[in-house]
Design goal:
Radius of gyration: 21 Å
Shape: globular
Structural class: mainly alpha
Strand order of the largest sheet: 1-2-3
Oligomer: single chain
Largest sheet: 3 strands, antiparallel
Order of helices and strands: EHHHHHHHEHHHHHHHHHE
Low-confidence stretches: 1-13, 207-212, 405-415
Number of strands: 3
Number of helices: 16
Strand content: 5-15%
Helix content: over 70%
Length: about 425
């Protein structure tokens, strides 16, 4: 059995949603992910300025994502036991340093150092900010996770716009402007950290009943469901990596368009994804979490399979549809996993954000190597089949089965 102890630190005593905090962490998520998404967005710039191969570009994405993947679960596990509010602004300092190094990088090795620093910043943000979303959610945990996630998706969507407006005319050094975003994120995180610390201090003085909630699913079924969720993350984020890292090259090569124009298609994909992320939570409330997870991945397949064979106009249309459907399910997957493993908010958040980064990074490295050995067109055609893995969602426990819990109560005093 799994157990969740609902201590005061894990629930809002006023049972209200603190929207000021939710929108603050969403803003920081926007700033952080716009910084992080600059890296794949400037691949065409680095490809020219540093004479990088597609394999090297793949390894840059791999390093960024695997750095975040390795540390996020560890930070989530640690802070589940010992919450550290001021890790939030400290994490953004790493991102700030990474952007400075990246702006001045003159070699492949220096780019790798920069992305390691940026990856460390994301490692701190995601599990801890997700915990803050949980604490500030009150009774609206699905909505809170959607607000937090939407900020990140908007940040990712802005990266191609920044590439067209800043990096193409200014080159690699234009990255230095993103230090302003990092400084703004640090200031917002200080506000969030103060709220978080005050929340923990208030909670530590409250005497209340502790509810022990047991998830009635067998351990074997929980492990089985987690394996399915990981496979679904694999299909989702390797496909996203193929689009954000290599689809611009495909458009430039196949349709002979400019780098700036190609970035518009990536923006359309990610902007539609931000809308899908925001609506994913309410849609899951209406149609069920498992159904929403299934739809968000398998529903992408007809459009991804068509994408390599249509005209430029229909490519733009399909990018919008794919972005909306594919990215509508990630926050739902996180909430579903939290219910599979109750009481492990930081660990689950760190694990799933970490897997998202890690799988995307591994996919980028492999796809870059495949692109060098074959062609960009082959990579896009191959990855079009990944959403078919969404068929596995049919084997997840139903929402009704997942929500079968038993509750015991006893008195306790928190210290």
């Amino acid at each position: 059995m799994n157990f969740m102890v609902k201590t005061p630190a894990a629930s809002n005593p006023q049972n209200t949603t603190v929207f000021s905090v939710l929108f603050a962490i969403s803003l920081v998520h926007l700033l952080n992910d716009s910084i992080q998404s600059v890296i794949p967005a400037i691949f065409p710039i680095l490809h020219e300025s540093l004479k990088l191969s597609f394999s090297q570009i793949g390894w840059i994405a791999f390093t960024l994502n695997v750095t975040a993947s390795m540390f996020q679960p560890l930070i989530g596990l640690y802070t589940d036991a010992k919450p550290k509010p001021f890790l939030l602004p400290a994490g953004v300092v790493f991102s700030l340093l990474g952007m400075v190094v990246l702006a001045f990088a003159g070699s492949f090795a220096q780019v790798i150092i920069a992305v390691i620093l940026i990856g460390l910043g994301s490692s701190v943000l995601h599990p801890e900010a997700s915990r803050v979303a949980y604490l500030a959610a009150g009774p609206r945990r699905g909505l809170a996770q959607s607000i937090f996630q939407t900020g990140g998706n908007i940040g990712q969507a802005l990266a191609p716009v920044f590439t067209a407006l800043i990096f193409v005319p200014l080159g690699q050094f234009g990255i230095i402007w993103f230090t302003i975003a990092a400084l703004a994120a640090i200031l917002v995180q200080i506000f969030v950290a103060k709220w978080y610390r005050g929340y923990m201090t208030r909670q530590s003085t409250i005497k209340k009943a502790v509810k022990v909630v047991r998830n009635n699913l067998p351990k074997s079924m929980i492990a089985y469901a987690m394996c399915i969720l990981i496979m679904l993350l694999f299909s989702k984020f390797v496909y996203v990596a193929s689009m954000t890292g290599f689809y611009a090259f495909y458009l430039i090569d196949h349709f002979k368009i400019s780098t700036e124009y190609a970035q518009v298609f990536i923006f359309a994909l990610l902007a539609a994804g931000a809308v899908g992320t925001f609506l994913g939570g309410p849609m899951a409330d209406r149609f069920g979490r498992r159904n929403m997870i299934w739809f968000s991945i398998l529903g992408t397949a007809p459009f991804s399979l068509l994408l390599p064979y249509v005209s430029l106009f229909w490519s733009a249309v399909l990018c919008v549809i794919i972005g909306f459907i594919l990215l509508s399910g990630f926050s739902v997957i996180v909430v579903y996993a939290q219910e599979l493993l109750p009481g492990k908010v930081g660990t689950v958040s760190g694990l799933f954000f970490g897997l998202a980064f890690g799988l995307g990074g591994i996919g980028s490295a492999v796809l870059g190597t495949v692109a060098d050995a074959t062609s960009i067109s082959f990579v896009i055609q191959l990855c079009a089949y990944l959403p078919l893995i969404g068929l596995l969602a049919a084997f997840l426990p139903t929402d009704a089965r997942l929500n079968l819990v038993s509750v015991d109560s006893k008195q306790a005093v928190t210290n």
